[in-house]
Amino acid sequence: MYSVLLSRHDELGEGPVYDSRLKRLYWVDINGMRINFMGLQSKAVSSIRAPGRVSSLGLTDDMDVIVASVELGMYSVSTSSGSFRLLGSVDERGTRFNDGKPDPFGDYVVGTMDLDEREPLGSLYLFDGRSFRTLVSSLTISNGLAWDAERRAFYHIDSPRRVVMEYRYDDEMRLSEPHVALDLRDEPGVPDGMTIDSEGALWIAKWGGSAVSRWDPALGEKLGEVKLPARNISCPAFGGPGLKTLFITSAKGEADDLGGSLFAAEVDASGVEPFRFLAHKNAVVK
Questions:
Q1: Which residues of the chain have pLDDT under 70?
Q2: 116 touches 101 (CB < 8 A)
């Protein structure tokens, strides 16, 4: 079962992440140019107005957050003052940043997408606070990311292909042994954002499919689904006590649905703590 935490709040809600230290849920509204956060105890919602569109967000080892802007910049954002500080940018024509998350080693992995959503102009990058390194190239809409730290498996979605790719990764987040873990071409909707639970199952948002589905990437089997009253579901993330609540963002679409709402679903699974960008390791100067 699901509940509606905020009805039609965002134009294009994306990138939820839960901070267990502050008991706070963050997410972005890309087209609304806002970073949102909600205290789960008070249910009070606050927003930081961004100087442009932001596409993804990650926790850090301090009280700030790190965000990727549509204009291909990485920023440190103070959640107390709302100030933005540019850390680095990518020089890539015809693209914008899309989904991104901190990795197990304290860096930030972020992908780009073709502005026209047609050509494989994008790449997946690792940002260490100073520079970018290309991990995967020839992507059209770089999207969902997840790590299975126990198996050293990294999962990634290039949405138009409608498959989930699996890679092996080493201690420097270098990728090898690429193969298709999940073929979703017969599923309704397009795979968008993604998260992983404590059993290694992947939860994948269905853009245009009104659902989040759970999959076993080792067997290629669909394990379940949360159906939602919005067509364009963008991204899931676990949070709350015991990381047992699945928070789900969406985008405005059909006039008669709840697109743009923030949902919460109690599911028979629990998540894993999100990784944090290590600002001190990466010498991000205050």
A1: 280-286
A2: no
Instruction: Give the tens place of pLDDT for each residue, 72-91.
Output: 999 999 999 999 999 999 99
Does the pTM exceed 0.85? yes
Whether residue 196 is contained in a domain is answered as yes
CA distances from 48 to 4, 34, 172, 191, 268 (A): 22, 6, 33, 28, 33
Instruction: State the pLDDT at residue 253.
Output: 84
Give the contacts of 10 (CB within 8 A, at least 6 positions apart): 27, 29, 32, 34, 36, 249, 250, 251, 252, 260, 261, 262
CATH of the domain at 77: 2.120.10.30
Letter string b/e over residues 45-62, b meaning 16 or more CB atoms within 10 A of that residue's CB: eebbebeebbbbbbbbee
Q: Is residue 271 part of a domain?
A: no
Q: Chain-centre distance of CA 72, in angstroms?
A: 16
Q: Rounded CA gap, 153 and 177, in Å? A: 10
CA gap 61, 277 in Å, rounded: 6
Q: Which amino acid is at 158?
A: D
Six-digit token pair at 45?
């919602």
Token pair listed for 18: 């839960």
Instruction: Mark 247-269 as b/e (b = at least 16 C-beta within 10 Å).
Output: bbbbbbbeeebbbbbbbbbebeb
In whole angstroms, what is the distance from residue 270 CA to residue 236 CA? Answer: 12
CA dist., res. 208 & res. 159, Å (int): 12
| Residue 284 domain flag | no
Residue 126's domain comprises 2-266
Is 282 contained in some domain? no
**What is the tally of structural domains in the chain?**
1
SS3 call for 2: strand
Token pair 């709302």 in the structure block, residue? 82
Residue type, 236: P
